[in-house]
Amino acid sequence: MNEREKILVIDDDLAPRESIRMILKDRYDVLSAGGAREGLDIMGREPVDLVVIDIKMPEMDGITALREIKKKYCDTEVILLTAYASLETARDAIRFGAFDYLIKPFDKDDVLLVVQRGLDKRRANTGLKMERDKLLNRASYLEEQVHKARNNIMTCYEGTVKALILTIDAKDHYTYDHSNRVAELSASLAEAMNVPRKIIKEIKHAASIHDIGKVGIEENILRKNGRLTFDENEEIKKHPSIGVRIVQSVPFLEEAIPVILHHHERYDGMGYPGGLRGKDIPLAARIVNIADAVDAMMSARPYRNALSPDRVLNELQGNAGTQFDPEIVDIILREKVALV
Ligand SMILES: [Fe+2]
Q1: For the chain, what percent of residues have pLDDT higher than 90?
Q2: 202-221 per-position pLDDT tens digit
Q3: Helix (H, G, I), strand (E, B), or coil: what is residue 272?
Q4: Dihedral through CA 270, CA 297, CA 161, CA 166, nearest 10?
Q5: Whole-angstrom Cα distance, residue 287 to residue 205?
Q6: Residues 212 and 133 placed together within one structural domain of the fold
Q7: To bridge 55 with a disulfide, which of 62, 143, 154, 247 should be the other Cys (CB 3.0-4.6 Å)?
């Protein structure tokens, strides 16, 4: 059986206080207090479901006490007792959170009805609060699960990227070192461009596997010392689409696809494989394109020496708007982005 609900009657006048207690005592546990301070002391010691309080009292009036009660115990319903003369005050008190009021002299049935309705409201509010707490608990549990799942995906993601990088390394160590440097430089460029942190991370991962398609190119072409013939060059040009075929079956690597596919597009539309022009080339691919070219220029080749940083900057400037995105070149020059 449910515990009986607790009602506190506060009135400095003994007669109405006792009369309300007598009306309610068979259905509820009734406590009584001869003043607002005494009533608040009782509420500090034990929970009360509903308070019936007189408006006109010495020391602390019922309205002040009502505001105090609502501040400390917002779920406790309050019913005001008022003489006909203070009816307006009682009506005004509804906006301070009083549930209702009873006019003296009160009728037994009215008291029972108003108290019953006040308790119904409290029960409904408590039920809603419990439901809300349950939902909040559920939401935080789900949030935790999502966080765990995201961490698992990130672990898989990092592991897969690492496996792909090691695949490149096994095939061609130069491409592996080159890819790592391109990843670092792409991240620095993206940072100088104020790209959001999450996107910088995606660009860095994509840059580290931008040449993954080279695992599908014959080794004698990849490792050839000297300039490539036309046919060999055509063969090399297949590596972006081979790269896409390799990663497209891994759903969480799809952000890397635009970089893998378009890192050899040129700003003037003369690149490959799509011949995309200007801003039609995805931003991440434009960034990686510059980082890729910078690293290639700064690496020694069998047929030429490494270019100095000043010479590389000149090349970037000279080819801004044709090979490279001029805005990114401007940022490199303005922000003095370290190229090594
Ligand atoms: Fe490439």
Answers
A1: 70
A2: 999 999 999 999 989 998 89
A3: coil
A4: 120
A5: 13
A6: no
A7: 62
User: Which residue, among 168, 173, 172, 181, has the nearest Cα to 295 in the 3D structure?
Assistant: 181
Query: Is 294 found in the same domain as 200?
Result: yes
280 CA distance to ligand 1 centroid (A)? Answer: 19
Task: Kindly state whether residue 147 falls inside one of the protein's structural domains.
Answer: no
Q: pTM score, two decimals? A: 0.60
| Ligand 1 centre distance from Cα of residue 210 (Å) | 6
Query: Which of 117, 137, 157 is at the close of a domain?
Result: 137
Q: Is the pLDDT of residue 134 over 60?
A: yes
Q: Where are the alpha helices (DSSP H) in 193-270?
A: 197-208, 219-222, 230-236, 239-247, 257-262
Whether 133 and 231 map to the same domain: the answer is no
Strand order in the sheet with 29-33: 29-33, 6-10, 50-54, 77-82, 100-103
Say whether both 188 and 84 belong to one domain.
Answer: no
Which residues keep their CB under 5 angstroms from ion ligand 1?
211
User: What domain range is 296 assigned to?
Assistant: 172-334
* 178 and 116 housed in the same domain: no
| Same domain (yes/no): 44, 119 | yes
Q: Render pLDDT for 169-181 as a digit per residue (tens, 0 to 9).
A: 888 787 888 899 9
Q: Provide the CATH number for the domain around residue 62.
A: 3.40.50.2300
Catalytic positions are 214
CA of 264 to the centre of ligand 1 (A): 6
- Confirm if 17 and 57 have CB atoms less than 8 A apart: no
- Angle, CA of 174, 175 and 181, to the nearest 5°: 95
Tokens 């490494």 sit on residue: 306
Is residue 162 in a domain? Answer: no
- Do 119 and 198 fall into the same domain? no
Asked if the structure places residue 240 within a domain, the reply is: yes
Measured in Å, residue 286 CA sits from the centre of ligand 1 at 12
Calpha distance 93→155 (Å, rounded): 59
Number of domains the chain contains: 2
CA 182–ligand 1 middle distance (angstroms): 11
Q: How far is the CA of 119 from the centre of ligand 1 (A)?
A: 74
Q: What gap in Å lies between CA 269 and CA 271, rounded to an integer?
A: 6
Considering the domain architecture, whether residues 68 and 126 belong to the same structural domain is answered as yes
